[in-house]
Amino acid sequence: MEPLASRRPLCSRPAPTTGAAWLRSLPRTTDASTSNPRTRMRPSFPLPASMRRMRVPKATRADQADDDKPSRTKRLSHEATSIECDVDKRMLVQAARKGEDMDTSQNTGKKRTTLIVALVACLVLAVGAGVFAWFSAQDTKTNTFVSGTGITDPDVKPDPNRPTDPHPDPDNNPNTDGKIVETEWNENSPLAPGSITPKNPNMGIGGDSMPAYVFAMVENTLPADAYFVLGKGWKPVEGYVTEYKTTITVAPDQTVIDKHPSITDPDAKLYKSGLFVYVGETSDWAMLAPTVDPAGNKANYTGELFDKVYTSSTFDKGQVTGDKNTIKVSAYFAAASGDGEYTGENKNQLKEESKKEILASVKAWAANVKA
């Protein structure tokens, strides 16, 4: 910093020896904002803000006597003087410099305070944003499966008198070895024109089985005139059956289906082969559910798909050869995979969407079996 002695004077007029006389020597200005005729004595250089409002005692009578101009303006200027002090020009300069230093330090302090506040705000925002960005949740659930279909084999064979019920005497009726039971079939049964051969396939499930839809596929490799009568409780799957239609002439202009004379039911449905679905006592698919028989053995059956194999009066037994001598019956059971697939609490029907999926699977299964 440059020494005071070497600095340029603030004004060209020599400094008075006393503060009051020096102040009176400064230029006078009139307060125009208030239209006050009184004048103020102000220095020709700016004072620091800390000194602009400072008031000092008014000029004494002795100072007034030093003025050799007894005009009204001087008298008023003595009364209106707002800054009278015993400091010299050097003291004022030091005071001004001190004020500037104070202002500079205050500004620096304010800037520093503002910067600190801004940094703290940024830190808070960063912490808040970081916490929000990392809100998360995780969960894991493992389901365990077991092998099996949920559809078990019946424990006993069906009642010969009531094919939909389990046998009443399990001690005299051996347990079954599968879900398709035939109680009247004799292996290597002979066929002849107009013959009747017992064969009664019946589909059953065990007592701990899930309710299921049941489909049956019949493959008949016998000559064309071998057929069966579809049992009660079964319905053909449209487009997947072959009807028996062999006719005979009974009059010059009259033909009828060549069926066995023992078939007296006019509504009997005659088929050679095809895909069938269990409907029970309804007209639509029915779910087969297990029941408990009086003896404590659990089983339930659809009833016989058919009970006999018939041949027409014109059947050619010579066509019964090694590759044309079988009737094969296969069964497909479809159960729900969850309670949400049922239409109601009774769990006796599945939703239409599930039934469509089952039918598509059954048709694909039937095509593979036939192949």
Automatic annotation (TrEMBL):
Region Disordered, residue ranges: 1-80, 145-180
InterPro entries registered for this protein in UniProt: Signal_pept_SipW-depend-type
Lineage: superkingdom: Bacteria
Residue stretches of biased makeup (Basic and acidic residues): 60-71, 154-170
Signal peptide: none
Record field: transmembrane: 115-135
Keywords: Membrane, Transmembrane, Transmembrane helix
Record field: compositional bias (Polar residues): 27-38
Protein name: Uncharacterized protein
Organism of derivation: Slackia faecicanis
